Amino acid sequence: MEPFNSKQPDVPRLFSLVALLLLATGMIWGVTGGLQYLMPGFLKTYLSFERIRPLHVSSVVFWIILGAMGAVLTYLQQHTGKKIVSAKLLKIQFILFTITVLLILISYCAGIFGGREYWEFHPLLSLPITVGWVLFLINFLRSAGSLKNQPVYVWMWLTGIVFFLFTFLESYLWVFPYFRNHVITDMTIQWKSYGSMVGAWNMLLYGSSIFLMDKINNHKKYSYSKIAFVLYFTGLFNLMFNWGHHIYTLPTHAYIKHISYAVSMTELFILGRIIYLWRASLTEARKNFYHISYRFLAAADLWIFLTLLLAIVMSVPAFNVYTHGTHITVAHTMGATIGINSFILLAISFDLLNDTCQSFEPFKKLFSRGYWLTNISLLVFWLSLIGAGVLKARWQMSQEQEVFQTMMQQLRPFFVLFFISGTTLLSGILMMIYPLLRNQWICYFKTNGEKKQRTRYLSARFSIE
Amino acid sequence: MFPDRQKIIVLSLLIISFLLYSFSIYISPTQKKETVSLLASRGKLAWQQYNCVACHQVYGLGGYLGPDLTNAYSKRGAAYIKVFLANGTATMPNFYLSDEEIAALIAYLQQVDASGSSDPRSYTIQPDGTIQQ
Fold first, then answer.
1. What's the confidence (pLDDT) of residue A327?
2. Could you report how far apart the first and last alpha carbons of chain B are, in Å?
3. How far apart (Å, rounded) are the C-alpha atoms in residues B94 and B92?
4. Considering the domain B38-118, what is its CATH architecture?
5. Is 90 exceeded by the pLDDT of residue A274?
6. What would be the CATH architecture of the domain defined by A265-465?
7. Number of Cβ pairs < 8 A linking chain A and chain B
8. Average model confidence (pLDDT) for chain A?
9. How far is the CA of A290 from the CAs of A142, A208, A287, B26, in angstroms?
10. In A322-434, where do the E strands start and end?
11. Residue A262: its chain B contacts at CB < 8 A?
12. Does B52 touch chain A if contact means CB atoms closer than 8 Å?
């Protein structure tokens, strides 16, 4: 393997750049979808909700997936001190993913579907994704070497990559009539695969965030510690067996629900640890708050707490009866994908992409405003969804149930709040990522590929205050 | 730090348990046998082709813009559903579905309806926090 040199052409960095573009466009689709809740029939002829929703969902899902791949590939090189073994496979992987994502988004605009929720695209487009992921796995295995004496994040990356592949293939079992033709069979396996798949990409992201924290702290005490591995195996255990809360209301085997209910309670251990370490985390946050990446990780910590709390409540079937099918579920998803996944990815993006020829200095104020606007907006956004969910839960359980449209009218004030906070959330995120994208554009394209002197990542730490 | 051998053993045990659990679900995932018709099977594919799940739910899973359709067949009947499918609404576009597609979608909704109830009011909450349908 060749030694890693950050000045050489960097495909992993391109993954992160494409991912950021997907985040921006995905959020624009999301705001458009929010508007359709307020103005029924808006864009009905050309971009009705069944097109807008997958445009939003797939864009942000691929923001997470491509961002996670960029993070793992870059940090793996920094961990081993060597380049990824096969540059050719890496390029093919990048081309496969970018072209496929583009085709998926175009097909949605044209109203071509065929898949299922979250993977609504035609099933044929799942083939290049599978091939691209296999190439990712091959390159990872060849570059990482053995598991001997590896820190926890290498274990997390490996299991994340393997389990994503497994669950992605599992989510396509519906193409076989044996699975597809039975409603309950199909839905059980669909949500089994989705639940574990989220756990798999979380492994990639949490592993990368541990690597980043080690880098900020300049030591690897945590990533080799016993508690790190205990938490890793707890996470893996939940990835494998804690997906049944999605289908508590489905008439499937009772044991599936009981296993999930029991396993989900192990999350109390993680929750307890967060509360126990709260004071120490606050001190650490104050100490490192000048560091942009750390800011995102601190915000993600808060959202891990809120999302985990909500997840544990929703894992109790007696509560799940009330929350299931309501916007409380959406609040949980948004807390996890924006508050945790996206904040971790933004922390990583700022770590990977800030060493350009252009200074970040002129944008510090813009960034700070964007950061606070994003966090406050997300909280309002999350609370508006919970408010809408509580009203819908009350409607679902009421004996004299009003018609669906009347209930939706009652939820309207929350939809207004949801739309406004969604728009400010988009603005906040654009304010933060604009300088990153602008600087990359200037340094990589406007100079015709001629890179000016770039500082290495360690010297790129800068103060916000 | 745990020795690598211990970590490999734990990982292997977890993976074996996961695979056994997964395959047991593939072989026998439901409590009761479901009846399947060719028309309903085509309806399922039409449901995916028009991305109905973006707005509608089945068993509380799916979109939030339109109502849950799990028991629409027994609550509203085939004729009522057909009117919506053939014309759309103020929010739902007219997809200009063919008669065959409408018949297939109705057959699929009939199959979904026969599989159980999605009404949370019909569930019983047990003292241990579990629910019974």
1. 96
2. 46
3. 7
4. Orthogonal Bundle (1.10)
5. no
6. Up-down Bundle (1.20)
7. 183
8. 89
9. 37, 20, 8, 51
10. none
11. none
12. yes
